[in-house]
Amino acid sequence: MQKIFYEKEIDLLHQLKELVSLTVDESIDYKIEDHGVRAVGSLAIKGEYISQEKRHFLENVELDVYADDQKIIDHQDFHLKVEDFHYDIIDGNLKIKIEVGVYGVEEGENRYIQLDEDPIDEIEKLSRDVETQTINEQVVAEAPEEIQDVEKLQEKIYETKEKEEKVDDDEDLGVYYLYVVLPNDTYASIARQYQVDEKMIRDYNQDLNLDAGQILIIPYAPKDHSNKV
């Protein structure tokens, strides 16, 4: 079994004084594909709380998990199930951590996904922080000896960061997929399978080493569906 942990903050306008009830229910469809099975659906987070009066909330977490035939141990047993969840009340809002079990597949490393407002934005931010730090170090290392003025050096770093952020802002981010890594998988082979740029996949996963059973986040790359002649 593989485990995926989803963490999500639910904004209740800082009015949560007491949590009355909380449930997490999965609603998932399974689709047989050419070389595996895809689980598509959502987790419904429902609850009741007290502020000035009793109120209800409903939040949905979208799921899309793909398992290759070579990774699946038992096709009939392949399914996703909410195993457990824990919550904290922070400054009148709710933070919940949901444990989802992926059954019928080989055991692999647990995967943690942060879901604040948009899971892709969170992953993008983490990746950008690492890249920005590397860029800053590279600029300092490559600065010629004649550049002794600290303000000029800082300006050069700022310009480099600004270019990187402009590229990020231009990306068309949409849904994402979760892929279970097979023993002989490489970033290149996965990129070909999903028709996504290899570097993009590496960036979204912070260039993790690929181990069998690991779950990778695959960014959605829109395709041009217009007719061509």
TrEMBL record:
<protein>
    <recommendedName>
        <fullName>LysM domain-containing protein</fullName>
    </recommendedName>
</protein>
<dbReference type="InterPro" id="IPR036779">
    <property type="entry name" value="LysM_dom_sf"/>
</dbReference>
<dbReference type="InterPro" id="IPR048862">
    <property type="entry name" value="SPOCS_spoVID_N"/>
</dbReference>
<dbReference type="Pfam" id="PF01476">
    <property type="entry name" value="LysM"/>
</dbReference>
<feature type="domain" description="LysM">
    <location>
        <begin position="178"/>
        <end position="219"/>
    </location>
</feature>
<dbReference type="Pfam" id="PF20918">
    <property type="entry name" value="SPOCS_spoVID-N"/>
</dbReference>
<dbReference type="InterPro" id="IPR018392">
    <property type="entry name" value="LysM"/>
</dbReference>
